[in-house]
Amino acid sequence: MTTARPPLSVLNGRFVTLEPLIENHLPELFEAIAHPQVFAGGYGGGPAGLPATLTEFCAFARAYYPFGAGNPYAIRLRGGAHDGVLVGTSTLGDFELADEAAHIGWTAYDPRVWGTAVNPEAKLLLLGLAFDSGFGRVKIQADAANERSRAAIAAIGAVYEGTLRRHKRRADGSWRDTAVYSVLREEWPSVRAGLESRLERWGDKPVPFRSTFLPAESDSGE
């Protein structure tokens, strides 16, 4: 199969819809993810990188998300009382066509949907898109200090490859180490089956959208 960057189009799952992220989504995305709980795990440069206003968030988003170079998505709930609510974002990017490599990252979710079907189904859709497009390796990474995010990545079935030391500067000027995981093409059938099994446990019930935030634990932080 020839490896090709996938078209940026809507991806429909049972619990979520991924639609191409555009400027008009930013106010909704600000409401969903501009919270201390999200940035505490290292997202967007860590706690010091948290935008305080919508104007600051829009400037952050334009610089942070790989518009043009990647395929960024807005993630919305499907079904139930909260159908259509924007609850996060993720991106398939860093396309290396010659090496058949890509990266799922820039991922963050509203804390009110942490621990639900949102993250596993988003990963199922994005990994499926990558492997259907001919990629052989998909990287997923997180701040090495973010144990919750690392556990969420490992639970997908991604394999830990190692830690890049002093890899990225945080917004406060300190340096973070980055834990790197990946899923290979030959591992995808098993990973897919595991994700589908996790989603089956939710049955046909829509994703619950909590009225309050959970403590600082995260499916986000890449």
TrEMBL record:
<feature type="domain" description="N-acetyltransferase">
    <location>
        <begin position="16"/>
        <end position="158"/>
    </location>
</feature>
<dbReference type="Pfam" id="PF13302">
    <property type="entry name" value="Acetyltransf_3"/>
</dbReference>
<dbReference type="GO" id="GO:0016747">
    <property type="term" value="F:acyltransferase activity, transferring groups other than amino-acyl groups"/>
</dbReference>
<protein>
    <submittedName>
        <fullName>N-acetyltransferase</fullName>
    </submittedName>
</protein>
<keyword id="KW-0808">Transferase</keyword>
<dbReference type="InterPro" id="IPR000182">
    <property type="entry name" value="GNAT_dom"/>
</dbReference>
<dbReference type="InterPro" id="IPR016181">
    <property type="entry name" value="Acyl_CoA_acyltransferase"/>
</dbReference>
